[in-house]
Structure formats: structure tokens, C-alpha cells
Specification:
binds ligand C6P, Aspartate Aminotransferase, domain 1, Aspartate Aminotransferase, domain 2, 15 helices, 4-stranded antiparallel β-sheet, single chain, 2 domains, alpha/beta, globular
């Protein structure tokens, strides 16, 4: 029996989601760590990659590696075609109106920085206000702090309650005609809270503000329709969506992107350069200076093909079952405290154990082959809000199993025994 079989789920699922078939696509799940089957529960940090994505990357480098948008030769044309077809896949994945609205960036972080520097510097000035929340990842805090420092604008935070939910009445109070931008995570990486982004967007628009949604934790778990949401910007990272690292997406409404200055200068983002001046390329290329992460984009396209090919809604239901199963076990562990108990929550289990530092929990769990993240999760203000230095965080993907949740709790109990 190999390790993957050992950990395969005997727990009946309420839908037809074929977990065994899915797991066979992720060969890394058969690895061992310190002699134990790998139980990978750090999916919020980065997800594993299916064979289908790895093979597409391999094929690009082996068969048609070349630069794009530049060559007349066949390899370059093929690479350009596959690169641009990935943009089309992203457009359909987000239900954007046009491929002109899809900008490839390094990840959610770069997407937010692009908006802060390009939209922010040309639309936000002294006396204006930017609103974010207490539960943001540093990627959706620091770029706005930098913008506000440069411009003299003020940064405001929507507070959260003890369950880790936004206090919407306070949000309503913060909004005014001074508000120029609201930037909010779709799903919190530290708490798992799913934010009511449609309401947030509509309220911001009512005072004339634009809205950026940080979808880094959302796209692997939920369908996103940027037209229905009516958000102005939406960002995500490929590596959390079963694709490569170093590639991500900024969606922006066409008219907004058109009105914004380029973020970086260089090759590919120009239509004409003289020694005196430059005419910029059309969208989306205006925002893609230099040779892009071609393999990353092609791999992201393959990852989107992958999630499109599985029953994504069934996968999301299955993940919710895993979360419910894990939540049902929390009460059985003495001294285990959940951080983030929102009613609307996705598959993230952030917790502390009385008298045991989260880093120690992470180390002891690793000894059992269970990979979780311990720390502040790049969301220090949320730790401050809950008066804790850190949490241990298990985060589930659709390839995890109930047996792995059991392994997590066995390891947690072991941890409690080690620390007495
Ligand atoms: N969160 C986590 O373990 P990048 O690094 O650009 O791919 O993604 C940044 C980012 C932005 N917003 C949210 C909500 C995120 O969760 C992340 C990344 C990882 O929680 C790594 S710190």
C-alpha cells in the first residue's frame, strides 16, 4: 500500500466529488515527511500543482520556449498564441468583459501595488480617504500606507467583531465623499471569513469611491464574476489556484485602466519610442513591461483548465464538509481556541492551544508529517486585534480528506501530550 492509499478517505461524501481521482492528479500528496505520509494543510500559503499543470510547463520549456509578441518565427508565434489564450481563459474565469481588462502581474501583491501607484497617485490626494479593513493581508495594507504617506491622504480601517466579521455599520459611518478607494479582501487568509463584498462594493459606489477586491484566498474556493460584483479591480495569485508561483492577475474595468498611467516602463508596453517621448501600447500591454513570466501565464491557463474540468461547485461543497468535520472536532481538544468564527467562513482553521506557542505546534505537527502554517500570516493587525502574537493555521483544499483532518487532530493531541 502506498502512502496516498493509506490516507485515502473512507469517509462518505454527501456529493459525487471523486476525491480519489482528484488526488491521483497531485503526485506530491504521496510524499512522506519524516517517515509519515505528507498531510498538506498549508493550502492558503500555496496550493499543490496537478500533473496537468506540471506537464504544460514542461512542454513549454521542452517544445516551444521562446519570447512572445516579438518574433516572426514559429516558436515565438506559438508561445504568443498560448500566452494570449491563457488571458482569454482568465477573462472567462472571472467573467470579465474583455481580455483588455486582464493584466498579468507577479501576484496579488503586485496587482495591488500597481493600482496604488498608478490609480492611486493620479486620483488620490491630500484630504482624500482610503478605506481598508482590520483583517487585511500586509499586501493590502502597506501599499495604501505608502500611498497615503506620499499623498497626504488618510487610511481608515473597518473594524471587526470578535467572530472576525466586518462591522458593517462602522463601514457605513466611515464612507463619505472623501472616500476615493475601498480595498477589501474577499476572504481573509488569517480567519477564513468570507466578506460581504457585493454590499461593500455597492455602498462604496454610492459615495463615488472605487473598489479593489483582494481575491487571493477566494479564487481557489469560490466562483467569481467581476461583472456581477461590479468591482473596479480584482486581484489574485496563480500559485494559490493550483498554478505556478510568480504569476497573478489584475482585473480592472476597461475605462479605468485606460485612464491610468503605466506602472513600469520598458519593452512591450510601448507603441512608439523616440528620444523625446513614448507613446504607450494599448491595453492590456500598457501594464506589462518587459518579458513577462511566459511559462507562468501558460501554467496559469492550465490551472484554470484544471479547475474548469472538475466540478468546482462540488469541490467547494466538499471543502465545506471538511471544514465542518474539523470544526466538529475542536471542542474535543482541551485548550484549543478558534480564531475566526464567522458565520460565512471558508476552509481555514486558525487556532491557538493554551500555553503552547503556535511555532511549537507547527514543529510538532511537522514531526507527524502534517504541514500547517504558524505565525502572524502576514496579517499582524488582526493578531493585534485578538491580542495574540500568532496562530496555527490549517487550510484545506479539495484534495484533502477527512482522514487527513483526523491526522491533524491526532497530531494536535500529540502536541498537547508533549507539552503536558
Ligand atoms: N497569503 C498566506 O499564507 P502573493 O504573495 O502576492 O501571492 O499573495 C499575497 C496575499 C494577498 N492577499 C491575501 C488575502 C493573501 O492571503 C496573500 C498571501 C499567504 O496566507 C502568504 S503570506
Amino acid at each position: 500500500m502506498n502512502n496516498s492509499e493509506k490516507i485515502i478517505d473512507a469517509f462518505p461524501s454527501s456529493n459525487d466529488f471523486d476525491i480519489n481521482k482528484i488526488r491521483a492528479d497531485f503526485s506530491i500528496l504521496t510524499e512522506t515527511v519524516k517517515g509519515n505520509p505528507l498531510v498538506y494543510l498549508d493550502n492558503a500559503a500555496t496550493s499543490q500543482k496537478p500533473t496537468q499543470v506540471i506537464e504544460v510547463l514542461d512542454q513549454y520549456y521542452r517544445e516551444y520556449n521562446s519570447n512572445i509578441h516579438r518574433g516572426v518565427h514559429s516558436l515565438s508565434q506559438k508561445a504568443t498564441d498560448v500566452y494570449e489564450s491563457a488571458r482569454d481563459k482568465v477573462k472567462n474565469f472571472l467573467n470579465a468583459n474583455s481580455t483588455k481588462e486582464i493584466i498579468f502581474v507577479r501576484g496579488a501583491t503586485e496587482g495591488i501595488n500597481l493600482v496604488a501607484q498608478s490609480f492611486g497617485l493620479s486620483n488620490i490626494s491630500e484630504g482624500d480617504e482610503v478605506i481598508i479593513t482590520e483583517m487585511e493581508h500586509h499586501s493590502n495594507i502597506v501599499p495604501w500606507q505608502m500611498l497615503c504617506e506620499t499623498t497626504g491622504a488618510t487610511l481608515k480601517f473597518i473594524p471587526i467583531n470578535d467572530a472576525g466579521e466586518l462591522i458593517m455599520e462602522e463601514y457605513a459611518q466611515l464612507l463619505s465623499d472623501k472616500t476615493k478607494l475601498v480595498a477589501v479582501s474577499h476572504i481573509s487568509n488569517a480567519l477564513g471569513t468570507i466578506n460581504p463584498i457585493k454590499t461593500i462594493i455597492d455602498k462604496a459606489h454610492a459615495v463615488g469611491a472605487k473598489v479593489l477586491i483582494d481575491g487571493a484566498q477566494a479564487v481557489p474556493h469560490t466562483r467569481v464574476d467581476v461583472q456581477k460584483l461590479d468591482c473596479d479591480f480584482y486581484v489574485f495569485s496563480g500559485h494559490k489556484l493550483f498554478g505556478p508561483t510568480g504569476i497573478g492577475v489584475l482585473y480592472g474595468k476597461h475605462a479605468l485602466l485606460e485612464s491610468m498611467p503605466p506602472y513600469q516602463g520598458g519593452g512591450d508596453m510601448i507603441s512608439m519610442v523616440t528620444m523625446e517621448k513614448t507613446a504607450y501600447n494599448a491595453l492590456p500591454h500598457k501594464f506589462e513591461a518587459g518579458t513577462p513570466h511566459i511559462a507562468g501565464v501558460i501554467g496559469l491557463g492550465a490551472a484554470i483548465d484544471y479547475v474548469n474540468a472538475i466540478d468546482f461547485d462540488a469541490a467547494a461543497n466538499y471543502e465545506n464538509e471538511l471544514l465542518d468535520y474539523a470544526l466538529s472536532k475542536v471542542d474535543q481538544v482541551e485548550g484549543m481556541n478558534l480564531v475566526g468564527t464567522a458565520k460565512e467562513k471558508t476552509s481555514i482553521l486558525s487556532f491557538t492551544l493554551d500555553s503552547i506557542h503556535p511555532h511549537d505546534i507547527g514543529t510538532i505537527l511537522d514531526d507527524q508529517g502534517v504541514a500547517i502554517r504558524a505565525g502572524h500570516h502576514c496579517a499582524m493587525p488582526i493578531m493585534e486585534r485578538f491580542c495574540i502574537p500568532a496562530t496555527a493555521r490549517a487550510s484545506f483544499a479539495f484534495y484533502n480528506t477527512h482522514a487527513e483532518v483526523d491526522a491533524l487532530f491526532d497530531a494536535i493531541n500529540q502536541c498537547r501530550e508533549v507539552f503536558g
